[in-house]
Specification:
Oligomer: single chain
Radius of gyration: 21 Å
Largest sheet: 9 strands, mixed
Number of strands: 11
Structural class: alpha+beta
Shape: globular
Helix content: 25-40%
Distance between the termini: 26 Å
């Protein structure tokens, strides 16, 4: 059986390694759970898809975020999100990600929308925090709105500096056009230019979204491994507990501190926390 819950269990079994391993990418992840591993491209890890289980679908995508402080390292090119379309990740038949997934036995397109998680590690003054967190902790508004509103700020600044006025309809059109990340990701080739140009989007986490920040989220203690999952209602909450109880034994459960935290912008999350 494969799922983000089983992946977290594999981390729990080796949790002490987080305190001394130099690079997070060198952690001895359980390859039996994974359909692909990458360095420098999204996703860093992907969980295998379960063929016959509707309760545990598997297929989750994971990005590693490692830092030598309690600040989360910036997201380069890939804006953090809670779900991704697998078709947008596997853009061609020659995709190394698709090749790895197929070789691992996945029916890649049987799960077109994948949940995204981030494995975040921070270190400070000899202490370590590790969190496996759902992407909704960072995606509190849609990626399209984030890009569009950011572009809107640039546009308004330039119009003000240039003393130019545009009617609201034109502004709305421009906001709509510049709301897609793919527009910025392409390399642009200009006649007679000896270089190509590509705009990259870099995303930095604000204090309100930094779960390593002790002032904002004091519940996330030093030297702990945390599994952080959102829920919107009692039914979703019960399903999370049921899945966790299916993966972890009663003996394991005694080591966990289980509680809820409230995100500044995005509701409540369940936290399963264990000391190193």
């Amino acid at each position: 059986m494969y799922s983000i819950f089983h992946f977290f269990y594999s981390l729990y079994l080796k949790k002490e390694i987080f305190t001394n391993i130099q690079k997070l990418e060198n952690f001895p992840f359980d390859n039996n759970l994974l359909s692909c591993k990458n360095i420098g491209i999204f996703p860093d890890l992907a969980i295998k898809v379960n063929k016959d289980s509707k309760f545990f679908t598997g297929g989750e995508l994971i990005e590693l975020k490692d830092s030598v402080s309690y600040s989360i390292s910036s997201f380069n090119s890939t804006i953090p999100t809670r779900k991704k379309e697998i078709m947008k990740i596997i853009s061609s038949e020659s995709s190394s990600i698709k090749k790895q997934m197929v070789e691992a036995g996945d029916d890649v397109f049987s799960l077109p929308i994948r949940n995204v998680y981030y494995l975040v590690r921070g270190k400070k003054k000899g202490n370590t925090k590790v969190c496996l967190v759902n992407g909704s902790f960072f995606e509190t508004i849609s990626v399209e709105n984030l890009i569009s509103e950011s572009f809107s700020q640039v546009l308004e600044d330039r119009l003000k500096q240039s003393n130019i006025e545009l009617n609201p309809e034109t502004k709305d059109i421009l906001h709509t056009i510049f709301s897609n990340q793919e527009n910025f990701a392409k390399v642009r080739t200009i006649d007679k230019a000896s270089v190509k140009l590509r705009f990259r989007i870099m995303t930095e986490v604000k204090a309100e979204g930094n779960l390593l920040n002790s002032k904002k989220y004091p519940e996330i203690k030093d030297d702990t491994l945390n599994f952080i999952i959102p829920f919107n209602n009692k039914k979703e909450e019960d399903i999370i507990y049921e899945k966790f109880n299916l993966v972890f034994s009663d003996k394991d459960m005694k080591h966990f501190n289980i509680f809820k935290i409230k995100h500044y912008f995005n509701g409540y999350f369940i936290v399963f926390q264990v000391q190193f």
